[in-house]
Write a structure and sequence with these properties.
The complex is a heterodimer.
Chain A (H helix, E strand, L loop, with lengths): L3 E10 L7 E8 L4 E5 L6 H8 L2 H4 L3 E9 L2 E2 L5 H4 L3 E4 L12 H11 L4 H14 L15 H13 L5 E5 L7 H18 L2 E5 L3 H4 L5 E6 L2 E6 L1 H12 L3 H11 L11 H16 L1
Parallel strand pairs in A: 3-8, 3-9, 6-7, 7-8
Antiparallel strand pairs in A: 1-2, 1-4, 4-5, 9-10
Helix pairs in contact in A: 4-5, 4-6, 6-7
Chain B lengths: L2 E12 L2 E12 L3 E5 L6 H6 L9 E6 L2 E2 L5 H7 E4 L12 H11 L4 H14 L15 H14 L4 E5 L7 H16 L3 E6 L2 H7 L2 E6 L2 E7 H4 L3 H6 L6 H11 L11 H12 L7
Parallel strand pairs in B: 3-8, 3-9, 6-7, 7-8
Antiparallel strand pairs in B: 1-2, 1-4, 4-5, 9-10
The chains are: A alpha/beta, B alpha/beta.
């Protein structure tokens, strides 16, 4: 069984007459970096909330279909159990960080799980080291930059050693360099620990290079799901083409390049240089 | 193009924390200026000076010739409309329509005229079908549009948008850029505070980079957004197209017009492949 598995899930928030999720079927495995995109209100956040049980345990409504995370049925498993398997990080870390020091912030979730003191201490030490936060461990999270805060938010959910990391627009308020740092950090967790990351992000020009898979949602449904290059070609009119992709499409229309959509400036430059070299050297 | 706002050697501190350390900047009508830099660089503090919400400790700010220390916020806001990053701080009426009507009433418009303008603005911003709904029932993107609509309703000469694209999807982003182009055509001045370099490449004529309370670079978008070193100091990076152009240059393939956007880049690549720009 896949690590995260949804079968024909439909969900309607209480009091709403339209389905936020409509017949959503997907399965995802360890080691995937899934980029989740689509217009505002398309159901991306609701999908993440299903994974950690906020839907339907906290946000009530009509839930149909089947959702399993690490083999656990989301509907019948309490959220504090699901929290061990799915770490959730939001756009605004200020809503998530509330303790007086980075160290205590990271310890909080572990203490809540009822781990013995020595084990809590060991894991906090490990996480501070791993996320390079030792130098700020005594500082209050609100004193840190937005990028650092987001790092603390990720560190404190990763302390619980979840197999799944769900990030809802984690870089929306960050400058581009901090955003890249956060997305690289997530990639490292995916590659080194085999975490399954699901990341909601609008800025494709930043996020695409990290994704192993891209899912586009429209109106509660999955409109496209697959390799980022393929999905982008299919759904660019919905999610927008990053500038390098747009350039590629213009060149392609002129018959100058073939398929193989570039995801970064480096890839596009390489294609152009190659083209030039075959003509003139 | 005329000078709309002159910021002259402005210093400002919150308590003992200096936030602006000698900022000089001109906002002009008929052009779009992007103020860029990392969080905490002082961008929002700077734009609060544009309507006298904050007054300089040293230096001065002139809005269409009027010193902000000698005018009320209401007077200045009539010429300069600001839409802050979080629309929720700006919306408080019970309905979408009420929001725009309230703003117009505040600006002294008689009820009949206010109603007519409100009608037009809601249509323009595609909010007319929500007219009776509470602003809080709208999506973030729609709330942002409503905040812009309310400010635009009284027709200020300068519109200032603080992080207009943060958290916005592709459709909303395109709507915001279209709006900016239209305002510019009408001769308005537009200021966007942003760290979205692709968006700046698309809409900005001029870019000012802020670091730690100072403007470290200001000039045409084409020059500033291709200056990798200085962008990095402001925790920004070059947009995708200039990055690709720099990589081509490193291989000896020069594109003299420094394109920022896909269309222009594409034309330069065509020229390049037709051998026009290579070698002396």
């Amino acid at each position: 069984m896949a690590l995260a598995e949804l079968k024909r899930v439909r969900f309607r928030y209480a009091g709403s007459d339209h389905y936020a999720l409509d017949e959503v079927t997907l399965s995802a495995e360890r080691g995937e970096f899934v980029l989740l995109v689509g217009p505002s209100g398309c159901g991306k956040s609701t999908l993440l909330r299903v994974l950690n049980g906020l839907v339907p345990h906290f946000y009530e409504g009509d839930f149909e279909g089947e959702a399993r995370v690490a083999g656990l049925d989301v509907r019948s498993t309490p959220t504090h159990i699901l929290a061990k398997h799915v770490g959730m990080v939001f756009q605004d870390p200020e809503n998530q960080l509330f303790l007086s020091s980075v160290e205590r912030e990271i310890a909080f979730g572990l203490e809540n799980m009822g781990l013995p003191r020595a084990e809590v201490k060991r894991r906090v030490r490990e996480v501070l080291k791993e996320f390079n936060l030792e130098s700020v461990k005594d500082r209050a999270p609100y004193e840190l930059s937005g990028g650092q805060q987001q790092k603390v938010a990720i560190a404190s959910v990763m302390a619980l050693e979840p197999e799944i990391l769900a990030l809802d627009e984690p870089t929306a308020n960050l400058d581009p360099l901090s955003a890249l740092e956060i997305l690289s950090l997530v990639t490292r967790l995916v590659n080194e620990k085999g975490v399954l990351a699901l990341v909601v992000e609008h800025r494709l020009e930043l996020a695409l290079r990290f994704a192993t898979r891209m899912i586009v949602m429209v109106d509660g449904r999955i409109a496209a799901d697959g390799a980022p290059r393929d999905v982008l070609l299919k759904s660019g009119s919905i999610v927008g083409y990053p500038p390098v992709v747009l350039t590629h499409l213009l060149l392609k229309r002129k018959g100058l390049v073939s398929d193989g959509v570039p995801l970064t400036s480096e890839e596009l430059a390489r294609v152009v240089i190659g083209k030039w070299a075959t003509r003139y050297s | 193009m005329g000078d709309a706002i002159l910021v002259e050697n402005v210093y400002f501190s919150y308590e003992d924390l200096p936030v602006l350390k000698g900022v000089t900047l001109t906002v002009r009508t008929g052009e779009t200026l992007a103020i860029m830099g990392e969080n905490g660089a002082g961008k929002t503090t700077l734009i609060k000076h544009f309507i006298g919400l904050l007054k300089p400790e040293r230096g001065r700010v002139l809005v269409f010739g009027v010193d902000t220390r000698e005018a009320s916020v209401a007077q200045l806001a009539r010429r300069v409309g600001i839409v802050f990053q979080n629309p929720d701080h700006q919306l408080f009426a019970e309905s979408v329509e009420g929001e725009v009507l309230f703003t117009l009433k505040n600006m002294g418009y008689p009820p009949d005229e206010a109603r007519a303008i409100c009608e037009r603005v809601l249509k323009l911003f595609e909010l007319d079908r929500y007219r009776n709904r509470s602003p809080y029932s709208l999506s973030v993107g729609e709330r942002k549009r409503l905040a812009i609509a309310a400010v635009m309703s009284y027709d200020p000469d300068v519109l200032v948008l603080d992080e207009p694209t943060a958290g916005q999807d592709f459709f909303n982003k395109s709507k915001i850029s279209k709006l900016i182009f239209r305002l510019k055509r009408q001769g308005k001045g537009v200021v966007v505070v942003t760290h979205d370099v692709e968006f700046a490449a698309q809409v900005a004529d001029r870019v000012a980079l802020m670091v730690d309370g100072r403007i470290i670079r200001e000039g045409p978008a084409r020059d500033v957004l291709t200056d990798a070193e200085t962008l990095k100091r402001a925790r920004l990076m070059m947009p995708q197209i200039p990055t690709a152009v720099a990589l081509l240059e490193a291989e000896g393939l020069k594109l003299p017009r420094k394109p920022l956007l896909p269309g222009a880049f594409y034309l330069e690549i065509l020229d390049l492949l037709n051998h026009r720009w290579v070698g002396p």
